[in-house]
Amino acid sequence: MATKNSPASALKAKPSAPAKTRKTPAKAGPLPEIAEAKAITPMGWMHTARFLTTAAELFHLPALDVPEIAFVGRSNAGKSTCINTLTQQKQLAFASKKPGRTQHINLFALGKQGLTDAVLADLPGYGYAAVPKQDKLRWQKVMANYLVTRENLKGIVLLCDPRLGMTELDEVLLEVIRPRVEEGLNFLVLLTKADKLTRAEGTKALSIAKLQAGGGQAKLFSALKKQGVEDLAQLMWDWTHEEADTHAAGDTHD
Ligand SMILES: Nc1nc2c(ncn2[C@@H]2O[C@H](COP(=O)(O)OP(=O)(O)OP(=O)(O)O)[C@@H](O)[C@H]2O)c(=O)[nH]1
Ligand SMILES: [Mg+2]
Fold first, then answer.
1. N or C: which end of the chain has fewer CB within 10 A?
2. How many structural domains compose the chain?
3. Can you give the residue range of the structural domain that contains 163?
């Protein structure tokens, strides 16, 4: 959904001024304002993503003052694939058939070079049986700490394979983040691999996820069919530009 001052709403051109008689021949190429609007569609913005840094421990993560969105979920849920699909880059985040592929917190910067305005965080998945118990517990602590203490965290996307539903560890994560969601942290349950579901199954899974999401939202997504991609890009934009939108909206009133 487009909000005020979102890239999509920027595309809605203002009523154009009455055409004046042109004295000089028109130059070829797009009008500057159209070129500008094109550069800031949610998908265009997502495409600016580039690797920022990686960290195995929380204290290795740089403190940032731009909004950050975390992609979390069980191993193999499709977090890295989702980031690659959103950013339209094949190998920005490492996706793999082998669960447990992502083992560090990987940050990706968004926005024009030198003008980072948001960060995506790809987190290692949990619940992969082959990981030694000690490592599992260590990781669960790191992640819980990250989700509770990361100051610039603006939103959490919990990716979930609807064929498996919410696992016990997903429920634990929901409990961990509940206080922050109640305080207004943005939250989305993203049902991945929707291409594996019939339409009826998708509708049912979505209504269950909406209930489980508490104060958050739920959406269907398929990297394979490119379902829900633009919608998600728009939501990411809205989450990370809320204050700018509010200020701009306020500017219209005296
Ligand atoms: N059919 C289908 N397969 C998908 C989709 N998204 C991801 N996959 C597959 O699911 C597997 C796991 O994807 P990843 O993106 O590596 O999952 P992850 O959540 O990052 O996994 P970890 O890094 O282990 O936590 C890969 O084989 C992907 O090709 C989708 O939308 N549809
Ligand atoms: Mg991954």
1. C
2. 1
3. 30-251
Tell me if 243 is assigned to some domain. yes
Confidence of residue 128 (pLDDT cuts 50, 70, 90): confident
The CATH number assigned to the domain holding 136 equals 3.40.50.300
- Atom 13 (ligand 1) nearest CA: 78
Cα–Cα distance measured from residue 233 to residue 217, given in angstroms and rounded to the nearest whole number = 14
Q: Look at ligand 1, atom 3, and give the residue with the nearest C-alpha.
A: 193
pTM above threshold 0.85: no
Per-residue pLDDT reduced to its tens digit, 156-180: 999 999 999 999 889 999 999 999 9
User: What residue ranges line ligand 1, CB within 6 angstroms?
Assistant: 73, 75-81, 95-97, 99-102, 124-125, 192-193, 195-196, 222-224
Is residue 25 included in any domain, yes or no? no
